[in-house]
Amino acid sequence: MAGSLNAAFLLHRRSLMWSVMRIVRDPQTAEDLAQETYLRAARAAESGPIEHLEAFLYQTARNLALDHLRRQKTRGSVQVDGLYTAEVEKVPAHIPTPEAAIIERERFHRFRQALSALPERAQTVVVLSRIEGWPNGQIARHLGVSERTVFNDLKLAMAHCSDALRCLDGAGKISR
Q1: Could you give the 3-state DSSP secondary structure of residue 32?
Q2: Where exactly does CATH 1.10.10.10 map onto the chain?
Q3: Mean per-residue pLDDT for 15-42?
Q4: Does domain 98-170 bear CATH number 1.20.1080.10?
Q5: Which among 32, 40, 38 has a CA at the least distance from the CA of 71?
């Protein structure tokens, strides 16, 4: 489950941050709340599989953002970019439609298939780089290879995964 959580978070991280950003209007806070979303999902996954992982991630992120605004409100009215928190709370969060959730689930499934088709080292490089956020130098030292090898593995792996998703999109099965 940890692998699928990591991959799902990687796949949705940017979108989650933007969803949170629309609510809190602060990039650093949005980044912190996105990370907290991952931690909460990881804790929840320890007690059993999460049935609708993407929806769980978005709802958790939204709830954390709204909780953040409530905490700020109790400290007094806070003005953010010319808006007061009460106005910001009224901004609807991005919650994917059922169709969008199905599309993302299919894309995630295709991404996992493409990733699993790669050599083990390339899979490790993708996870360490894109999910764990390690720099290439650290990955190279960890794996005992050159930074150039890490760069090439990552480049080929991302191209492979991108081609798999583009093939899915181009086949008319899924339109985004």
Answers
A1: helix
A2: 98-170
A3: 89
A4: no
A5: 32
